Amino acid sequence: MRLTPILMGAASALAFTVSANAAAITIATVNNGDMIRMQGLTSEFNAAHPDIEVNWVTLEENILRERVTTDIATGGGQYDILTIGNYEVPIWGKQGWLLPLEFSADYDVDDMLPAIRGGLTVDDKLYGAPFYGESAFLMYRTDLLEKAGLTMPDDPTWEFVGDAARKMTDRSAGINGICLRGKAGWGENMALVASMANSFGASWFDETWTPQFDQPEWKETLQFYADLMKDAGPQGASSNGFNENLTLFQQGKCGMWIDATSAGSFVSDPKQSTVADKVAFAIYPHKDGVDNHGNWLWSWNLAIPTSSKNADAAKTFIEWATDKAYTEMVAGKEGWVNVPPGTRTSLYENQNYLDAAPFAAKAKEAMDAADITKPSVKPVPYTGGQFVAIPEFQSIGTTVGQLVAAVIAGQSSVDDALAQAQSTTEREMRRAGYGR
Amino acid sequence: MARAVKTSTRVSYTIAAWVVALLIFFPILYTIITSLKTEGEAIAGFNLIPSFSLESYREVQNQQNYIKPFTNSVVLAVGSTVLGLLIGIPAAWAMAFSPTKRTKDVLMWMLSTKMMPAAAVLVPIYLIFLRLGIMDSRIGMTVLLMLINLPIIVWMLYTYFREIPGEILEAARMDGANLWGEIWHVLTPMAVPGIASTLLLNIILAWNESFWTIRLTTTNAAPLTAFIASFSSPQGLFWAKLSAASVMAIAPILIMGWFSQKQLVRGLTFGAVK
């Protein structure tokens, strides 16, 4: 009889000890399919780590950036893990806002795709673990290209793309030869235009940080883009972003679409896409004679801010979420086509994945071709690809994006837009103290 | 003849009122329609006939817990309004019945705080919350929302109280009522329509406040505004899910507004025809 209260007391004490030792981590993330899937698998993590409580905060991408920046700058410590892009990781790592990540040997850091790993490393220290990565490639309709009497070359040039887009366009049937981003923003139209400029031989700045919009390569890029959208683009292209073009392509209204490789799974999924069986993929185009495929490279990464109060628990979670075992777990539960792509070499050597994802080989080729340490064929003082990895780029990129969108909307000329881009960027860079 | 003109005027006013009402209500109606579409239909273009798919509601329900943000919204909206009234009623009483030379200036100054862009004080408020340890807490958010809406509460109550003849309060004082009795037993019952509309309007304002509630909460005190914001996606389709989340977030306040509209209109038009 006396044993019961003793046992109950011991159980309560044990429960108290367990709860007292439990660490709670808060993860700030965005509402992407892969992130939501990870959120759904939290119970699997808890099964392996019952002592770590995981709280999720899902935010809109721009609000996430704003909140996370405020939190880090003020040492708020609201988050233990941040979901941030490869634009932020090197900048924040250099500023001492992030903790360097060191993983156990089982984690196999060397399996990370070199291009992705390079973008997250500062002074030989890794500041973010990639959760998924992407480059950009060309998606096209095989039936429309055949009808136009053309064959997609292995290494398409912009000249070919322009010609094919115009031949595929049939506006009476609602078909646009090509759909490209037009919505203003550094991560919207400028992701396309900046990488396009790279592949035309242009650069954002020369070695003394002088803006280069007054150079012929930029004029050629923008003129080509504006003419192409006028001749073969959809109506209202200046308000189209990733999602709008995705819908147009899935509904069979685009002959070609150049965008993130993550779109590959959406356009080839018969449940979502009406043209799933007529889609093929090619590497990002380049201008004839310019050896540059745009260098578009993006990854969403998990990083620990220095203000985190539970850095060890946060590291345990990151190791779980970005390990090879996680990929296998997702494949087992949701199929290989749904695993987060673009972070590990081993995934692209896995026949199950290659069989399930028809876009995988070209996506890997695109990622291998992207070299963020050498964005332009010209010598430049910055790294990046579809962005320039300096803190001022968000503001500059968005301003230039608005000028470019005005050209596509027919409100401004190419020359005026470039002249304004040059003067605005010069002023911003001078204010920020570059080139002194 | 005169009767015919009167009828036609009435009919045209009725039609005009319906058109204006429909225009105002249309965004909400279209959100409800979009929430009943598939993601493909939602982004395909303007269409008033949905396929009545409940898929988005199911996905929203699976992805996020609705109860916690809903509870937080109720606590923050009601809490901040009640707290605001507790401070606002005595303040408005003082300004309406014992005005000084500077009363108008004080009222103007209070209103001017509403003209300040919220983003301008984000960092100071953020730091204050941080230092006081009230980040992501219901108490912190309740006090903040109360402070944000206090100028409106005081202004509305001041306007209503000014309509009440001061002689009635004087009579109550002559009958021996103390200050508390004067406010609680004489003034408040007479101003019930005004207080009720102030209460309802401020609950709606606090319920809909998104700038601060999204930025100063994470998990513990995040209300439905944060719940809606979490469904915006940079890649992939989300309009139908976002609409479903919005409908779930606005439904309670819409229903409350519907049932209390008589009180709300009565309060808002209080003294308007004087």
Task: Give your account of this protein's structure.
- The complex is a heterodimer of chains A (436) and B (274).
- Chain A is 44% helix and 14% strand.
- Chain A is of the alpha/beta class and 436 residues long.
- Chain A has two domains: 16-134 and 298-356, Periplasmic binding protein-like II (D-Maltodextrin-Binding Protein, domain 2, 3-Layer(aba) Sandwich); 136-296 and 367-431, D-Maltodextrin-Binding Protein, domain 2, CATH 3.40.190.10.
- The longest helix of chain A has 19 residues, at 3-21.
- Chain A is globular and about 60 Å long.
- Chain A starts with a helix and ends in a 5-residue tail after the last helix.
- Chain B is an all-alpha fold and 274 residues long.
- Chain B has a domain at 66-230: MetI-like fold, CATH 1.10.3720.
- Chain B contains 14 helices and no strands.
- Chain B is globular and about 70 Å long.
- Chain B: The chain crosses the membrane at residues 12-33, 74-95, 115-134, 141-161, 183-205, 238-259.
- Chain B: One of its GO terms (cellular component) is plasma membrane.
- Chain B: Its main location: membrane.
SSE inventory with pairings:
The complex is a heterodimer of chains A (about 425) and B (about 270).
Chain A: H1 3-21, E1 23-30, H2 33-40, H3 42-48, E2 52-59, H4 61-73, E3 81-85, H5 88-94, H6 114-119, E4 121-122, E5 125-126, E6 129-134, E7 136-141, H7 142-147, H8 158-168, E8 176-179, H9 189-199, H10 216-232, H11 242-250, E9 254-260, H12 263-267, E10 279-283, E11 298-303, H13 311-321, H14 324-334, H15 351-356, H16 360-369, H17 393-408, H18 414-431
Parallel strand pairs in A: 1-2, 1-3, 8-9
Antiparallel strand pairs in A: 3-11, 4-5, 6-11, 7-9, 7-10
Helix pairs in contact in A: 8-10, 17-18
Chain B: H1 2-35, H2 39-44, H3 55-63, H4 67-97, H5 103-112, H6 122-132, H7 138-162, H8 166-174, H9 179-190, H10 192-208, H11 211-215, H12 224-229, H13 239-259, H14 261-268
Helix pairs in contact in B: 1-13, 3-13, 4-7, 4-10, 7-10, 8-9, 10-14
